[in-house]
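Record L-lysine 2,3-aminomutase, 517 aa.
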Amino acid sequence: MLSKIAQSKHLFGGPAVTPGLKVFRSAGSLPRHRAQVTDVGKALDTDGSTISPLFNTGATPTGEGFYRPPPPVQERVGDYQATNTNPHPVATAIAMHRDEFWRKVPVWQDVSADEFLSYRWSVANTVQGSAKLLKFLQAVVPELVPLDKSGTQMQTREEFIKDVLDGVTAATMAIRMTPYILSRVNWEDPRHDPIVRQFLPMKSLLMPDHPKLALDSLHETADSPVKGLVHRYPDKALFLPTSVCPTYCMFCTRSYAVGADTDTVTKASLKPTRRRWEDAFAYIESQPGLHDIVVSGGDSYYLQPEQLRLIGERLISMPNIKRFRFASKGLAVAPTRVLDESDGWVNALIDISNQAKRAGKAMAWHTHFNHPNEISWITSEASQKLFEAGVMVRNQAVLLRDVNDNFETMSKLIRQLADNNIFPYYVYQCDMVERVEHLRTPLQTILDLEARMRGFIAGFMMPSFVVDLPGGGGKRLACSFQSYDRGTGISKYTAPAVTGRDKENKVYEYYDPIGPP
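=>
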């Protein structure tokens, strides 16, 4: 039985607005707007069926620079009916003089701020699958784009698009990109854009896989006592309620399960069924040594608000659980959802955060920015709203070749995250998953970065530079290797705290990419 929704009575005001600026500010009641996600099945119930999101009517513009919210709505969640009367309004007014950067993309040059800031519009205009990608690229890529970084050689639009579509055929991850992240791309030079490099594979850039690469390089399936729950550390487990994301990363560590099937991979999909979730909850409750749960996937953004509440309230109710985090890239690829007062996801998150605090427990949002170009004024407004609401947000970046593998880019990223009260938590060495050899860096790169960055920012804003050990050894500081042979590219680690599945005293090996440095 779903737990009864707790109604929060806390509202969070914002700072004064500069006189003369046209602004949007929310007020009043909010509906439980459900994002349109075709991948996530039908309503959560007791027969194990999957979950189907629906749209509700959202807030409407007044014509005077403000949103007019709809009246309270009655909503049935499981065995309970609740009236949504206690919103969390946008903490900071959105100044309309901010750069409407999405208008630089030809297909969105006439899209208003109202539309772009709507999560419903974002979902409807997400580019998903090869056919939509082809249509989008034909509309936004110039006739000629640089082939090399100096711009001395050019390639035609058709050549670039063919390179991308051939890459999609060879990739392990399906294509899905939100309008927000697509609008942060420099389409005048897409081949060398750090965002394109993360999400759109180009066949000409792919390199042969290292022989040690694997789809499930961290052996998550082997460390799962029940489907969708990875228990590797003594006091922490990873719960995977869904296998859908708002945007798919080419280098996904969970490429064995996340997203739609591709030409190269049939996914071990994790459908969000009640039966599977209950098995996971029962296991967590049966382990008194478990104190910390990461709720990931997929992506927690693809949980409906009532599902988010269900999971959060269930974890809060467990005496053994002291901390939990929702993992979502949403703040990086679709921050408009946090500001969209017609959508209930962030309000559910804030309510859960407050409930956890009242229970003496800690909840956090772990997000995933990799490059400063992903951060805009919309990110800042969304982050400020979360900060004022008391939600802890931490970032986990991945070190990627020609994306963020230099001091200037990584230091700028960390500084901007810190300035937005997003705590830099981890910088990961790229996992040894298939089809990403062109994105991996030698271990020496992450060692050099950490050595140079240490001290450039306050210690509590300095991330840990880590390797998630192949074979299920868990995260270890990159600099804590037992040995590192730069000639062979093999580094060796031990993980004393990880002892399950005969891992005691095991030595784990990470392999540098074979290709050029």
